[in-house]
Amino acid sequence: MITGHTRLYCIIANPISHVKTPEEMNNLFASVGHDGVLVPFHVLPQNLSQFINMLRGLENLGGLIVTVPHKTDVLALCDDTVGDAAAIGAVNAIRRDPDGRLIGAMLDGKGFVSGLGVNGIDVAGMDVCLLGAGGAGAAIAFALAEAGVAHLTIVNRSQDKARDLAERVLAKYPSIRIAPGAPETARRDLIVNATSLGLRADDALPLSDLAFHRNQIVAEAIMEPEVTPLLAAARAAGARIHFGRPMLRQQIRLMARHMGVTSVPDA
After folding, report:
1. Which residues belong to any copy of the Quinate/shikimate 5-dehydrogenase/glutamyl-tRNA reductase domain (predicted)?
2. Both 127 and 176 in a single domain?
3. How many domains is the chain partitioned into structurally?
4. Taking 80 as the threshold, does the pLDDT of residue 266 lie above it?
5. Would you call 71 a catalytic residue per the annotation?
């Protein structure tokens, strides 16, 4: 039941019809007894600045979730950021403080690592291959570094983009070995697909080196389909596979806490 006491939250995207977050977040609010509701808003890029500035005056707004294509552009519209958002160059959750200030965070990567953790996978000390250096890839790279991986190889079509990401992560986490390179699938403890390849049935695989084996983990950031062609190939070779859905579920918890919902336990 929505009343005058209900705390409001929103998610913005372009387009908006595909997003799964409202169902997940509203289920979470109900489960912890929080009087709040998350609603979707379809915001075009040319209207982003006007929309964000309007939110500063909404006294009953707790915050907003940001998804494609706004994660990069919204960074400059925040008053401050927490964690690695500034270094990553993107924001996907914003808290509205009582004074109207907007505080951004980037939780894609933390949600991914937390999703691994709840399934008993500790990445500390692992040799990891990360496929993709885009927005999701950058967030996951920083989160893997923060979690203590020993070695991180970034595989991307643009070597310059992979090198730039490696340099930014290394500047914040100088103790890890990180560089652009080739998958070298057989030697990895963990392979992560942070590209969009696998969303469509006719997509190519995100790597051609398919030397998967039973002593490694292959993980997806893609949620639908649940079993992507990459995961199917890895499972057929005996590797342990990790689906994309835990990333969303853990990220939802982190987003809610960032937006001030203290009744949600730590992820």
Report:
1. 123-196
2. yes
3. 2
4. no
5. yes
